[in-house]
Structure formats: structure tokens, C-alpha cells
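How a chain folds remains the central question behind the approach discussed here. The record that follows shows the chain in one-letter code together with its fold in C-alpha cell form:
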Amino acid sequence: MRDVMTGPVGRPEFIQAERRFVRSVLPGIVLLGLVAVAGPLLSYRSDVAEMRGQFQNRVVREARVYAEALGLHLHLLQTELQRVSASVGPDLLHPSELGKEDLLDLTAPDAGLFHAGVMLLDADGHLRWSDPPRSPEAASFATRPWFQEVLVRQAPVVDAIAPGASTFIVAVPVVRDGRVAGVLTGLLDTGGAVPGGRALGEHLELLVLNGSGDLFLPGAPPAWATRPEADAELRAVMREGLRRLALGPDVEVLAAATQVPGTGLHLVLAADETALLTGIRGRFLLQLLGVALLQLGTLVLFSLHWRRVYNLFLSMEERAARHEKMAALGGAASLIAHEVKNSLNGLKSATGLVPPAGDGALVVRTLNGQIDRLAHLATSLLHFGKPPEARLADVDLSQLVRDVVAGLRSLPEAEEVHVEVSVPEQAPLSCDPLLLATALDNVVRNAMEATVAAKDLGQVASPTVRVLAALRDGEAVVSVEDNAGGPTASVEARLFEPFVTSKPKGIGLGLAMTRQALEQQGGRLAFERIPGGSRFRIHLPLNGVPRS
């Protein structure tokens, strides 16, 4: 009989067949994979070019929108300053003589237009007053480019307050009698007082530069804008309008520049193309990974399906051979069992004629013990050849266990084995009493014989068998434990197969018949090793369900 540990998968012919299958299927899958990869490879370049074109148009369009919004905001600021400048007299009066409401509109902490403050300069660039108050500067503003531009143009100017500064000003001339009497200046906070003072998006940056290329918005420029080569690149963007900045191999920035209407400022909208292309590359790699996984999955599914079909074929072939063999064995076992039982009946009758006392008592007991053993063997062979059908009845499991253990006390081994029985006072159960008694008899008998054999080999000093019964979780459980050390690994792997035994005088039908008897009632037989021995568990549903 084939060993159960070496299934069809371990057979050399199976391995050879599997290798032939892989060799025949793998080239086709590889070819399909190459075709599948060719599509993403060919479309990658066109996808990148199309995405870059769309992204470029978006950046240019959004740069114009932001520039117009910033220009409109600055125009409103200039208009408000011009309105307030009309209240300033030709002698540049003290601010207390101006309208308090006008000053609040300009510098109120929560609603003012110029949170950084307002200054009034005379025609020589000296500070006449400011709100909030500030000490006059040692140097005047006369040399500042924006101040000179206001004097010359006599028109509002928006610029950085100083070259390289992050604060910029909105300056309007105070014109009296056709000349510039002073300059009213509003200071803007680049941290968020104007549109664009905050980040627009995860990969978009809005920068504002004056005509000289000084960057003063945002206050904290992006990392790439602080590189030494960034200044020249931004000036080039201001000249060309659209440019990809050459800032190193690890940075790809597309920048669009447009002039802020009504000012000398330039707005630059910079987009990090690295993130854009990373997304495209990531999608491309995911496509390739998906193709690879599909190929692998196809190969695995083909292999699993083929293996399943091949195993099913071998299993059916093996099952048919086993059924044929078992049918033949069953017929032979039934014939042998009948002949043996007839002979045993005669022997039993003959020993009954011998007086149980006297010199022949020991011989009679020995003969009766061997006759009982052979009768049990014949019954096992008979049941193996033609298993009885399960007939359910209401029984007391506790009493049934006690009766089986009491019946086994007549065995020759019973005197050497200490049998402990622990059962509830009553345990109602619906089962086939004969089949359950046979199953219990087989398991307890095996445990007693195994412990005595272990004692004879010097492995244990006190053979012990414990029988425990309980009702739990909707089923009856009977555990039979022994201290015989347990079966060998080779026997354990085939423990419930017919004619597999580790006992020198056994035929290996007890456990196979026990499992068969339990399964006919919807139950099962389980085995586990415990320290020093074995444990067999009989599980039966409280309301038995016979199986056909």
C-alpha cells in the first residue's frame, strides 16, 4: 500500500509531467508578456509629451489669472491711497489732522489694507509721519528707485522697499499745484496680505519679482529658488515668458512669467514637473508590474489547475483500486470471520464443560481469555467486511462508558493496568449504542494493550489509562488517555488506515472501524500526543445524525 506521506506530488512521474507542462506553457506566457509590455513602452513617450503640453498650457493660463488678480488688488490699494492722499495738505499736516476714518481703513489691525503700516515722506524722501509711529531713519528714501520713479512719473509705483527686501510698498504721489509735495506709502506684509502670499498647491509656487529681479514674494521662497543659479534663471523667465529652469538633474521646474497689470512687477508661476513626471513614471511602472503579476498569476493558475486535475486523476485511480481491494478483503474477511466464530463457539462450549475450580481452572481461564480475543478479532473482521447501519437510540453515555470499561476488566492485561474513569452522573445522548460501545471498546482496549506492552519493554512502571466523558458545546466528548509513549511517526501518519498497527499481534482494524462507526453517526475520532502518551477523543453530536 502506498504510504500516505508521499502523495502524488512526490512521484517522479508527476514531477516530470509538471516540468513538461511548464516548458510548454512558459514560452507562450513570455510572448504574451512581451506584447503586453510593448504597449506601455510605446505609449510612454507620447503620454509624457502630451502631459507636458497640457501642463504648460495650464501653468501659462493660471499665471495670467493670478497676475490679473494681483494687479486688481494692487490697483485697489493705489486707489485707496490716492483717495487718502487728497486729505494731506500742501504742508504735509500731522496725521491727527487727517480723517481718523481714513487712517483706520489703512492701518486697522484686523481690517486695514496695510498691516505693516503707512508712511508719509516729503519731496526729499524724509519721513514726516507714520502709522504706527516709527523713528525717523538716518538716511532718507530719496535714493530709492521707487521714490525717484514716483517723483518723475507722478504716478503710483509698486516695488520692493529696498533691493532684496521681502517687504514691498505701494507708493502714490501727493501732488499739489502741479508738483510732488510728498509720497504716501503703504507697506505690505508678504506673509499673506496680498493674493499669492500663501502656497497655491502642493506642486505650485507663486513668486513676485520687481523689475530688477528682486524676489520678495513669498517671504519663504522654495528651496530651488535659493540656489545660486536660480537668480539668472528667473531673470531669463521674465524675459522669455516661459522656460524650463535648469536647476540640476534632480529638479524639473516649469516657470511662466507675466507682468502684473499697472505695476512694474512680474509674477512667476513655477510648477514642479518632477512630481508630474513621477506620477506618470509611477503609473507606467504600475502597468509593467501589473503585466508581470498577470503573467505570474496566469502561470500559477495554469499550474494549480493542471496539478489539481492530475491529482484528481490519481486520486480517482487510487480510490478505484482501493475500493476494489477493500471489496475483495471485505469478502474474504467475512468468510474467515464466520468460520472462526463457528470454531470459537465450539471451543467455548467445550471449556464450559470443565469445572472452573481445581487444577484445570488456570487452563480454563487462559483458554477463555484467548477465545475472547479471537472472538473480538472475528467480530472486527465481520464488521469490516459488512459495516452495520447506525440505529439511533437514547442512551446514558456515562453508564455506557462504565459498562465498556467493566467488560474489559476480564482481559488478561486488565490486572496490570490502572484504569481511571471520570464521567458525569448522567449524560443523555442519542446514538447507536452498539456502534458506540464497539468504538469505545476498541479505543480503550488499544490503550490497555499499549500500556502493558510499554511496561514489558521497561518504558513505564505503572500502566495507566484514563477515560473521561463530558457534554460540551452541543456534543459528547470521550477522551481516552494512556502513558504508553504514543505510536511511532510512521504509524501515526497512517493511524486510521486499515491493517496498519504497531502491535505484533494486531491486525490494524480497531481504529479504522472506530472511525467508521463514529462517522456513521455524524461523529469523528481525533488523535493527539500528550506528554508521555496518547489521547484519543471521540466526538458525537448530542442528537445523532446517521450518515448513509
